[in-house]
Amino acid sequence: MLLWRSVRYTWAVLRHKWYVLRYGFGEIPLKRLLVHDLSKFDREEFIPYRDRFYGPKTDKPSREFFAAVARHKKINDHHPEYWNFNGIPEVCLKEMCIDWFAATRAFDGKLPTVPGRWKWFLGYGREIVDRLKPDWAKEFVMNYLAKRLGELS
Length: 153
Known about the structure:
Number of helices: 7
Strand content: under 5%
Distance between the termini: 37 Å
Number of strands: 0
């Protein structure tokens, strides 16, 4: 049972990484795409993520899961939390958007067509964009999302 949960989680991360590579190729340096989210295979992240998404269903995530998410965002520079939402380089903003596309495709099975109809973006992504500083970063992300969604759909 534990082995099967580990295999399922590993497959989910690999599927996500495949979509990051597919959607980011030609936009983001290849090395960045290849190392994207490798920390999810570290013990500190692997076990809590696996248990949350492929373990027994619970209403509340564990403390370990929250700690793993915080660690992941702190050590991966495509997350705005790494930069405290301020002064994020364009390549990291692009990778953040690609990450969102890849996660949506890997876990929902399809890409949205526009940000305004994207359930995940409306519930969470918009809040992230609103916190970005300086203001040019907000505009950059919204334009990049619209442009790439148009290209990918």
